[in-house]
From TrEMBL:
One of its GO terms (molecular function) is serine-type endopeptidase activity. This is Tat (Twin-arginine translocation) pathway signal sequence. The lineage of its organism: Archaea, Methanobacteriati, Methanobacteriota, Stenosarchaea group, Halobacteria. It comes from Halogranum gelatinilyticum. InterPro entries: Peptidase_S8/S53_dom (IPR000209), Peptidase_S8/S53_dom_sf (IPR036852), Peptidase_S8_Asp-AS (IPR023827), Peptidase_S8_His-AS (IPR022398), Peptidase_S8_Ser-AS (IPR023828), Peptidase_S8_subtilisin-like (IPR050131), Peptidase_S8_subtilisin-rel (IPR015500), TAT_signal (IPR006311). The keyword Hydrolase applies. Belongs to the peptidase S8 family.
Length: 467
């Protein structure tokens, strides 16, 4: 296997995984030509010209999302951000399709095709259930304590495919909403399967009765509310923030926001408007938290140190947003180390890198609250199509089937699912109490707080402390 550090990654991204896949939403971003935020803490609403269209009234947070002549508004305004997905690898630095939902699992040349759940190293390493472990009969599992019943998680993303057998009856149709400006519903509309992959990480039910079975989410008894903010390949940050407010007012326990603004739009010396963008994000986050909703955000995939004051990665660095970095193994079920025996893929000295290894792409630094499984990759092997090299990515639901993706976008929903587990045990726990429990029960890998914040998500310790 080949070793890749962050410097190598940054040299390779243009040819190896495509520059368009970088960042937390992993996209290009630019200021909208006609849409903008009005900060009502600096602007008298009565003075806003009549020809300014209000797209989203977020006055609960003293914010309006507007369209029109921005210069005609007297006071603090800042352009909305257009996010261009460019392709259907939304939020992932690497993706690979797996089997269809109707068929068996991916091809395998040893002791038969593994079931779909055997690719879920992210769940197996957490001892989510004894049906999904390398230690059968090894004692109480996370799901023996809670499966997230009675909770609700918002997925603000590209839409969720609720026709998938592992997501059937998971999505609340009545509360789900299209917050973009197109005329369709909250299901995917040309922006790929990112939201469906995220939803499966949180809440897949392993209900598929096809030969390969299904996959299992962290909290299979939680309820998903889908807010689609992407129309085709583009979305607006203002639509995402509108979904935050809607989710909070719908009683969601957490918002999973695997979207962000990538480099180079992270340097306030080059883009001074970022400071006003920060104010908007923090005002909305404060309101959302006041309603009891945790905001979980992917830290971003630029390999960026977010600690210096010269960087500002939004919305991760906004006060009130819980930032998640990504980790993943190298060598899960491939590379010659017992790759013929799925029961041994995680046990013993069989991984080139452990599941807690900081992923080659992840942002890091002081804004990270915890790390979680987002997937890793040996890029040379992955791009050369080496059999099994995709196993180090996170395996979850996609439209019509299953697939692998890696990104901090995959790490955030691990934490969103964890919020559901906590709130199912402590429904009256405050946002601060939930976040503190997740951080205090996290385990600290050798790579330390620079990459992991308070530590790496530990579901067993978390539910033990919460019950």
């Amino acid at each position: 296997m080949s070793k890749f550090n962050r410097r190598t990654f940054l040299q390779l991204t243009g040819s190896a995984v495509g520059a368009a896949t970088l960042g937390a939403g992993q996209v290009a971003a630019q200021e909208s030509e006609s849409r903008f935020f009005i900060n009502l803490r600096d602007v008298d609403r009565s003075a806003i010209p009549d020809d300014i269209e209000i797209i989203h009234d977020l006055s609960q947070a003293d914010v309006l999302v507007a369209r029109g002549d921005q210069s005609s508004v007297d006071g603090t305004t800042v352009s909305d951000i257009t996010i261009d997905l460019s392709d259907d690898t939304t939020g992932a630095v690497a993706s690979r399709d797996g089997p269809s939902a109707a068929g068996g699992s991916a091809s395998h040349n040893h002791d038969g095709a593994p079931s779909n759940t055997e690719y879920q190293w992210d769940k197996r390493v957490q001892d989510l259930t004894n049906d999904l472990t390398d230690k059968p009969g090894g004692g109480k599992s996370v799901h023996d304590t809670t499966t997230g019943e009675g909770t609700r998680i918002a997925v603000v993303d590209s839409g969720v495919d609720d026709s998938h057998p592992d997501l059937a009856d998971v999505v609340n149709d009545d509360l789900s909403e299209n917050v973009s400006e197109d005329s369709y519903d909250w299901r995917p509309n040309g922006a790929g399967d990112h939201g469906t992959h995220v939803a499966g990480i949180i809440a897949a039910t392993n209900s598929n009765d096809a030969p390969g079975g299904g996959v299992l989410g962290t909290a299979p008894d939680t309820e998903i509310v889908s807010y689609r903010m992407f129309s085709g390949e583009t979305g607006k940050q203002g639509d995402g923030y509108a979904a935050w407010v809607k989710a909070a007012e719908a009683g969601c326990d957490a918002i999973n926001y695997s979207v962000g603004i990538p480099a180079p739009y992270v340097y306030p010396d080059q883009f001074p408007v970022l400071l006003e963008e920060l104010r908007i994000a923090e005002q909305i986050a404060a309101y959302v938290r006041s309603q009891g909703t945790v905001i979980v955000n992917s830290a971003g995939n630029d390999g960026l140190d977010m600690s210096p004051e010269t960087t500002l990665s939004l919305p991760t660095e906004a006060e009130g947003v819980f930032g998640v970095s990504a980790t993943g193994p190298i060598g899960y079920g491939w590379g010659g180390k017992h790759s013929d025996n799925e029961a041994k893929w995680l046990t013993g000295n069989r991984l080139e890198e452990p599941t807690t290894q900081p992923a080659f792409y992840t942002n890091y630094g002081s804004p990270v609250d915890v790390s979680a499984a987002g997937g890793n990759a040996d890029l040379e092997a992955f791009n050369d199509g080496v059999e099994g090299a995709a196993n180090d990515l996170v395996y979850s639901t996609v439209q019509g089937g299953y697939g692998w993706k890696a990104g901090t976008s995959m790490a955030a929903p691990q934490v969103s699912g964890a919020v559901a587990l906590v709130r199912s045990l402590r429904p009256d726990a405050s946002v601060e109490e939930v976040e503190t429990l997740i951080q205090e029960t996290a385990s600290m890998p050798e790579s330390g707080e620079t990459y992991h914040g308070a530590g790496h998500l530990d579901l067993e310790a978390l539910v033990a402390a919460a019950k």
